[in-house]
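User: Some background: our group keeps a shared notebook of sequences we're curious about, and every so often someone picks one and asks for a predicted structure to add to the entry. Today it's my turn. The entry only has the sequence so far, pasted here. Could you supply the structure so I can complete it?
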Amino acid sequence: MGFSGRLSWSLSKYLLNNKLRGIKRFPLVLMLEPLFRCNLQCAGCGRIREYSDILDQTLSLEDCLAAVDEAGAPVVSITGGEPLLLPEIAGIVKGIISKKRFVHLCTNGVLLEESLHKFEPSPYISFVLHLDGLAETHDEAAGQSGVFDTAIRAMKAAKKAGFQVLVNTTIYKGRELKEIEQLFVLLSEIPVDGIMVAPAFGYEEVDADVFLTRSEAIAAFQPIYEQRRRFPFYNTPLYLEHLAGKIELSCSPWSTVTRNPKGWKRPCYLITDGHCATYRELMDDTDWTRYGSGNDPRCEHCMVHCGYEASAVDAALSNLPSLWRTMKWNFFRR
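Assistant: Of course. Here's the predicted structure to add to the notebook entry:
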Protein backbone atom coordinates (compact mmCIF):
# COMPACT_ATOMS: atom_id res chain seq x y z
CA MET A 1 0.00 0.00 0.00
CA GLY A 2 1.60 3.26 -1.11
CA PHE A 3 0.48 6.87 -1.28
CA SER A 4 -1.83 7.92 -4.10
CA GLY A 5 -0.17 9.32 -7.20
CA ARG A 6 -1.50 12.79 -6.43
CA LEU A 7 -0.21 12.73 -2.85
CA SER A 8 3.15 11.27 -3.93
CA TRP A 9 3.61 14.09 -6.45
CA SER A 10 2.64 16.75 -3.89
CA LEU A 11 5.00 15.32 -1.25
CA SER A 12 7.84 15.02 -3.77
CA LYS A 13 7.51 18.64 -4.88
CA TYR A 14 7.29 19.82 -1.28
CA LEU A 15 10.34 17.84 -0.16
CA LEU A 16 12.42 18.92 -3.15
CA ASN A 17 11.48 22.57 -2.72
CA ASN A 18 12.51 22.60 0.95
CA LYS A 19 15.74 20.69 0.24
CA LEU A 20 16.72 23.09 -2.56
CA ARG A 21 16.04 26.07 -0.30
CA GLY A 22 18.29 24.57 2.36
CA ILE A 23 15.52 24.34 4.97
CA LYS A 24 16.59 21.76 7.54
CA ARG A 25 13.38 21.43 9.54
CA PHE A 26 9.90 21.50 8.05
CA PRO A 27 6.64 19.64 8.74
CA LEU A 28 5.16 16.97 6.51
CA VAL A 29 1.92 16.89 8.50
CA LEU A 30 -0.07 19.51 10.39
CA MET A 31 -2.00 17.97 13.27
CA LEU A 32 -4.99 20.29 13.51
CA GLU A 33 -6.94 19.90 16.75
CA PRO A 34 -9.93 22.26 16.51
CA LEU A 35 -11.41 20.83 19.71
CA PHE A 36 -10.70 18.35 22.50
CA ARG A 37 -14.29 17.48 23.35
CA CYS A 38 -15.08 13.84 22.60
CA ASN A 39 -18.02 11.45 22.76
CA LEU A 40 -15.81 8.65 24.16
CA GLN A 41 -13.29 8.29 26.99
CA CYS A 42 -10.72 5.88 25.62
CA ALA A 43 -8.41 4.30 28.18
CA GLY A 44 -5.16 5.20 26.40
CA CYS A 45 -6.07 8.75 25.33
CA GLY A 46 -3.95 11.49 26.83
CA ARG A 47 -5.76 14.37 25.13
CA ILE A 48 -9.03 14.50 27.05
CA ARG A 49 -7.05 14.25 30.28
CA GLU A 50 -4.31 16.76 29.48
CA TYR A 51 -6.74 19.40 28.20
CA SER A 52 -9.66 18.69 30.52
CA ASP A 53 -9.78 22.38 31.52
CA ILE A 54 -10.52 23.65 27.99
CA LEU A 55 -12.88 21.03 26.57
CA ASP A 56 -15.32 23.84 25.75
CA GLN A 57 -12.83 25.78 23.58
CA THR A 58 -12.56 25.40 19.81
CA LEU A 59 -10.66 26.82 16.86
CA SER A 60 -12.68 28.88 14.39
CA LEU A 61 -12.72 28.24 10.65
CA GLU A 62 -10.42 31.24 10.22
CA ASP A 63 -8.01 29.90 12.87
CA CYS A 64 -7.85 26.53 11.12
CA LEU A 65 -7.20 27.90 7.65
CA ALA A 66 -4.59 30.33 8.98
CA ALA A 67 -2.77 27.43 10.65
CA VAL A 68 -2.77 25.52 7.34
CA ASP A 69 -1.17 28.51 5.63
CA GLU A 70 1.37 29.06 8.43
CA ALA A 71 2.62 25.47 8.48
CA GLY A 72 2.48 24.88 4.74
CA ALA A 73 2.45 21.10 5.22
CA PRO A 74 0.95 19.08 2.35
CA VAL A 75 -1.07 16.85 4.72
CA VAL A 76 -3.48 18.10 7.38
CA SER A 77 -4.66 15.58 9.95
CA ILE A 78 -7.80 16.87 11.66
CA THR A 79 -7.99 15.27 15.06
CA GLY A 80 -9.08 16.06 18.59
CA GLY A 81 -11.28 15.18 20.47
CA GLU A 82 -13.87 14.08 17.96
CA PRO A 83 -13.85 16.45 14.96
CA LEU A 84 -17.34 15.41 13.81
CA LEU A 85 -18.76 17.08 16.93
CA LEU A 86 -17.70 20.45 15.49
CA PRO A 87 -20.54 22.22 13.62
CA GLU A 88 -18.03 23.93 11.30
CA ILE A 89 -16.18 20.74 10.35
CA ALA A 90 -17.52 20.56 6.79
CA GLY A 91 -16.46 24.15 6.11
CA ILE A 92 -13.02 23.51 7.60
CA VAL A 93 -12.49 20.46 5.38
CA LYS A 94 -13.74 22.28 2.29
CA GLY A 95 -11.47 25.25 3.01
CA ILE A 96 -8.39 23.05 3.45
CA ILE A 97 -9.10 21.10 0.27
CA SER A 98 -9.48 24.38 -1.64
CA LYS A 99 -5.82 24.99 -0.77
CA LYS A 100 -4.90 21.63 -2.38
CA ARG A 101 -3.93 20.10 0.94
CA PHE A 102 -4.70 16.47 1.75
CA VAL A 103 -7.11 16.04 4.66
CA HIS A 104 -7.04 13.05 7.00
CA LEU A 105 -10.15 13.43 9.12
CA CYS A 106 -9.62 11.32 12.24
CA THR A 107 -12.77 9.97 13.87
CA ASN A 108 -13.82 7.22 16.24
CA GLY A 109 -16.58 6.41 13.76
CA VAL A 110 -19.56 6.87 16.08
CA LEU A 111 -20.90 9.87 14.10
CA LEU A 112 -19.35 9.08 10.74
CA GLU A 113 -22.20 7.38 8.89
CA GLU A 114 -24.71 10.10 9.78
CA SER A 115 -22.14 12.78 8.82
CA LEU A 116 -21.15 11.51 5.36
CA HIS A 117 -23.65 13.80 3.62
CA LYS A 118 -21.64 16.81 4.85
CA PHE A 119 -18.65 15.89 2.68
CA GLU A 120 -17.92 15.15 -0.97
CA PRO A 121 -15.65 12.30 -2.09
CA SER A 122 -12.33 13.65 -3.33
CA PRO A 123 -8.72 12.49 -3.76
CA TYR A 124 -7.94 15.10 -1.10
CA ILE A 125 -9.95 13.61 1.77
CA SER A 126 -9.66 10.37 3.71
CA PHE A 127 -11.51 9.31 6.83
CA VAL A 128 -9.14 7.80 9.41
CA LEU A 129 -10.63 5.53 12.06
CA HIS A 130 -8.85 4.18 15.12
CA LEU A 131 -9.35 0.47 15.80
CA ASP A 132 -7.09 -1.25 18.33
CA GLY A 133 -8.62 -4.73 18.34
CA LEU A 134 -11.79 -6.67 17.64
CA ALA A 135 -15.16 -5.78 19.15
CA GLU A 136 -14.68 -6.79 22.78
CA THR A 137 -11.17 -5.36 23.07
CA HIS A 138 -11.95 -2.14 21.21
CA ASP A 139 -15.20 -1.47 23.06
CA GLU A 140 -13.49 -2.01 26.41
CA ALA A 141 -10.74 0.47 25.49
CA ALA A 142 -13.33 2.96 24.20
CA GLY A 143 -15.39 2.64 27.38
CA GLN A 144 -18.62 1.99 25.49
CA SER A 145 -20.23 -1.09 23.96
CA GLY A 146 -21.09 -1.19 20.27
CA VAL A 147 -18.41 1.25 19.16
CA PHE A 148 -16.53 -1.31 17.08
CA ASP A 149 -19.60 -2.48 15.15
CA THR A 150 -20.67 1.13 14.56
CA ALA A 151 -17.22 1.98 13.20
CA ILE A 152 -17.21 -1.02 10.86
CA ARG A 153 -20.66 -0.08 9.50
CA ALA A 154 -19.50 3.50 9.02
CA MET A 155 -16.38 2.43 7.13
CA LYS A 156 -18.43 0.28 4.77
CA ALA A 157 -20.88 3.14 4.22
CA ALA A 158 -18.04 5.58 3.53
CA LYS A 159 -16.44 3.21 1.03
CA LYS A 160 -19.80 2.66 -0.69
CA ALA A 161 -20.22 6.45 -0.94
CA GLY A 162 -16.84 6.74 -2.68
CA PHE A 163 -14.62 7.95 0.18
CA GLN A 164 -11.12 6.76 1.01
CA VAL A 165 -10.91 5.06 4.40
CA LEU A 166 -7.74 4.52 6.43
CA VAL A 167 -7.33 2.83 9.83
CA ASN A 168 -4.88 3.54 12.63
CA THR A 169 -4.13 0.60 14.92
CA THR A 170 -2.17 1.24 18.10
CA ILE A 171 -0.46 -1.67 19.82
CA TYR A 172 -0.71 -1.65 23.62
CA LYS A 173 0.86 -3.91 26.21
CA GLY A 174 -0.91 -7.23 26.53
CA ARG A 175 -2.54 -7.18 23.09
CA GLU A 176 -2.89 -10.62 21.51
CA LEU A 177 -1.16 -10.42 18.14
CA LYS A 178 -3.45 -13.14 16.79
CA GLU A 179 -6.39 -10.81 17.43
CA ILE A 180 -4.58 -7.96 15.66
CA GLU A 181 -4.04 -10.26 12.67
CA GLN A 182 -7.76 -11.11 12.65
CA LEU A 183 -8.55 -7.38 12.71
CA PHE A 184 -6.29 -6.81 9.70
CA VAL A 185 -8.05 -9.64 7.83
CA LEU A 186 -11.43 -8.03 8.53
CA LEU A 187 -10.22 -4.59 7.43
CA SER A 188 -8.71 -6.01 4.25
CA GLU A 189 -12.05 -7.57 3.36
CA ILE A 190 -13.95 -4.26 3.56
CA PRO A 191 -11.49 -3.25 1.97
CA VAL A 192 -9.93 -0.21 3.65
CA ASP A 193 -7.41 1.86 1.66
CA GLY A 194 -4.60 1.52 4.19
CA ILE A 195 -3.66 0.51 7.74
CA MET A 196 -1.24 2.50 9.90
CA VAL A 197 0.31 0.61 12.81
CA ALA A 198 2.37 1.99 15.70
CA PRO A 199 3.06 1.34 19.38
CA ALA A 200 1.19 3.50 21.85
CA PHE A 201 2.91 6.52 23.36
CA GLY A 202 3.28 6.46 27.15
CA TYR A 203 1.23 9.49 28.20
CA GLU A 204 2.06 10.65 31.72
CA GLU A 205 -1.60 11.61 32.20
CA VAL A 206 -2.78 8.02 31.69
CA ASP A 207 -2.59 6.15 34.99
CA ALA A 208 -2.46 2.61 33.60
CA ASP A 209 0.20 0.04 32.74
CA VAL A 210 -0.75 -0.23 29.05
CA PHE A 211 2.32 1.12 27.25
CA LEU A 212 5.14 -0.92 25.70
CA THR A 213 8.81 -0.30 26.35
CA ARG A 214 11.01 0.04 23.25
CA SER A 215 12.22 -3.57 23.51
CA GLU A 216 8.66 -4.83 24.03
CA ALA A 217 7.49 -2.83 21.00
CA ILE A 218 10.21 -4.30 18.79
CA ALA A 219 9.27 -7.82 19.91
CA ALA A 220 5.60 -7.13 19.16
CA PHE A 221 6.26 -5.65 15.72
CA GLN A 222 8.58 -8.34 14.41
CA PRO A 223 5.67 -10.70 13.54
CA ILE A 224 3.63 -7.75 12.25
CA TYR A 225 6.55 -6.84 9.97
CA GLU A 226 6.44 -10.33 8.48
CA GLN A 227 2.83 -9.65 7.44
CA ARG A 228 3.76 -6.53 5.44
CA ARG A 229 3.01 -8.11 2.05
CA ARG A 230 -0.25 -9.61 3.23
CA PHE A 231 -1.98 -6.48 4.50
CA PRO A 232 -2.22 -2.91 3.07
CA PHE A 233 0.01 -1.21 5.63
CA TYR A 234 0.22 2.54 5.14
CA ASN A 235 3.58 2.78 6.93
CA THR A 236 6.67 3.36 4.81
CA PRO A 237 9.03 0.34 4.52
CA LEU A 238 11.85 1.91 6.54
CA TYR A 239 9.52 2.84 9.38
CA LEU A 240 8.25 -0.75 9.54
CA GLU A 241 11.86 -1.90 9.67
CA HIS A 242 12.46 0.54 12.52
CA LEU A 243 9.50 -0.87 14.44
CA ALA A 244 10.81 -4.40 13.93
CA GLY A 245 14.27 -3.42 15.20
CA LYS A 246 15.99 -3.97 11.86
CA ILE A 247 17.21 -0.36 11.54
CA GLU A 248 17.47 2.56 13.96
CA LEU A 249 15.92 5.92 13.09
CA SER A 250 16.15 9.16 15.03
CA CYS A 251 13.06 11.21 15.83
CA SER A 252 12.10 14.30 13.81
CA PRO A 253 9.70 16.01 16.25
CA TRP A 254 9.26 19.06 13.99
CA SER A 255 7.87 16.92 11.15
CA THR A 256 4.38 16.73 12.67
CA VAL A 257 3.45 20.12 14.11
CA THR A 258 0.30 20.59 16.17
CA ARG A 259 -2.10 23.55 16.35
CA ASN A 260 -4.88 23.54 18.93
CA PRO A 261 -6.93 26.07 20.94
CA LYS A 262 -3.94 26.81 23.18
CA GLY A 263 -1.61 27.60 20.26
CA TRP A 264 1.22 25.72 18.55
CA LYS A 265 2.09 22.78 20.80
CA ARG A 266 5.76 22.46 21.73
CA PRO A 267 7.63 20.31 20.85
CA CYS A 268 5.46 17.67 19.19
CA TYR A 269 2.09 15.98 18.98
CA LEU A 270 2.86 13.73 21.96
CA ILE A 271 4.77 15.89 24.45
CA THR A 272 3.68 19.26 25.81
CA ASP A 273 6.28 21.76 27.02
CA GLY A 274 4.06 24.75 26.47
CA HIS A 275 2.41 26.42 23.50
CA CYS A 276 3.68 29.05 21.06
CA ALA A 277 1.72 31.96 19.65
CA THR A 278 2.96 31.38 16.09
CA TYR A 279 4.31 28.59 13.93
CA ARG A 280 7.49 30.57 13.37
CA GLU A 281 8.08 30.82 17.12
CA LEU A 282 7.65 27.05 17.43
CA MET A 283 10.17 26.29 14.69
CA ASP A 284 12.76 28.95 15.48
CA ASP A 285 12.72 29.11 19.28
CA THR A 286 12.46 25.42 20.20
CA ASP A 287 15.66 23.67 21.25
CA TRP A 288 15.10 20.54 19.16
CA THR A 289 18.31 18.93 20.43
CA ARG A 290 16.61 18.39 23.81
CA TYR A 291 14.21 15.81 22.39
CA GLY A 292 14.35 12.26 21.10
CA SER A 293 15.57 8.98 22.55
CA GLY A 294 18.69 9.55 24.63
CA ASN A 295 17.89 13.22 25.21
CA ASP A 296 14.57 13.27 27.06
CA PRO A 297 13.33 10.41 29.27
CA ARG A 298 9.79 10.93 27.98
CA CYS A 299 11.07 10.03 24.50
CA GLU A 300 12.98 6.93 25.58
CA HIS A 301 10.38 4.35 24.54
CA CYS A 302 8.61 6.34 21.84
CA MET A 303 8.51 4.81 18.35
CA VAL A 304 5.34 6.53 17.12
CA HIS A 305 5.01 7.35 13.43
CA CYS A 306 4.44 11.09 13.97
CA GLY A 307 8.10 11.42 14.95
CA TYR A 308 9.68 8.72 12.82
CA GLU A 309 7.93 8.53 9.45
CA ALA A 310 9.61 11.74 8.26
CA SER A 311 12.96 10.30 9.39
CA ALA A 312 12.17 7.20 7.33
CA VAL A 313 11.45 9.34 4.27
CA ASP A 314 14.67 11.27 4.80
CA ALA A 315 16.61 8.01 5.17
CA ALA A 316 15.05 6.72 1.95
CA LEU A 317 16.45 9.72 0.09
CA SER A 318 19.97 9.12 1.43
CA ASN A 319 20.89 6.07 -0.66
CA LEU A 320 19.70 4.34 -3.82
CA PRO A 321 18.73 0.93 -2.32
CA SER A 322 16.48 2.57 0.29
CA LEU A 323 15.03 4.92 -2.32
CA TRP A 324 14.26 2.03 -4.68
CA ARG A 325 12.62 0.00 -1.89
CA THR A 326 10.41 2.98 -1.00
CA MET A 327 9.53 3.60 -4.63
CA LYS A 328 8.50 -0.04 -5.09
CA TRP A 329 6.30 0.18 -1.99
CA ASN A 330 4.71 3.40 -3.22
CA PHE A 331 4.11 2.62 -6.87
CA PHE A 332 3.88 -1.15 -7.22
CA ARG A 333 1.70 -2.25 -4.26
CA ARG A 334 -1.55 -0.59 -5.15
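Suggested note for the entry: The two ends are 5 Å apart (CA to CA). Residues 135 and 149 are 7 Å apart (CA to CA).
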